[in-house]
Amino acid sequence: AAALVYPEGVHRFGKSKPETFLNPATGAAIHGQSFAKAATTENLAAGYPDPVPGVLNIGVLHTALNGREGHAPYAPCTPDELRSHGYDFWALGHVHQREVVSEDPWIVFPGNLQARHIRETGAKGASLVRVEDGRIRSLEHLSFDVLRFVRLEVDLDGLDSRAACLSRVSTDLEQAREQ
Minimum mean pLDDT among 21-25, 47-51, 61-65: which range? Predict the structure, then answer.
């Protein structure tokens, strides 16, 4: 990461402790922390700063919360711990499957922009957060993926020939492609 040159407007959080960045373009307070090592088993959320009064407060955290299927414990914490900070929105990383954990406040795994392998099925993209008068009004998933993996089960019950089976598979594959 040290060799990367980041474009103007990118803020990099430090690794030693959580910090707050006041975004001059939006007026929002963004609270976050980078991670010092790949396998973090400590609760990073515990040390996040207090919300900034009078502005939209957003927490960004690389975590698997208190566990997610297929994920080792990573920066473990609970949704209740995140709520206790008083932020308006938590954007979580590490888990590539989109999930809205809570709406009060918003706690969201937006997922990743593009599936990285065949086990990452379904639409991939980003979460568009609409803010009016300093309050979150809506959250919408936008799909950006250019390649999508799906798991397709084809019911071959009652079919008595290879041709009929191939036809059913072909039809189901076409329907999945159209979706």
Answer: 61-65
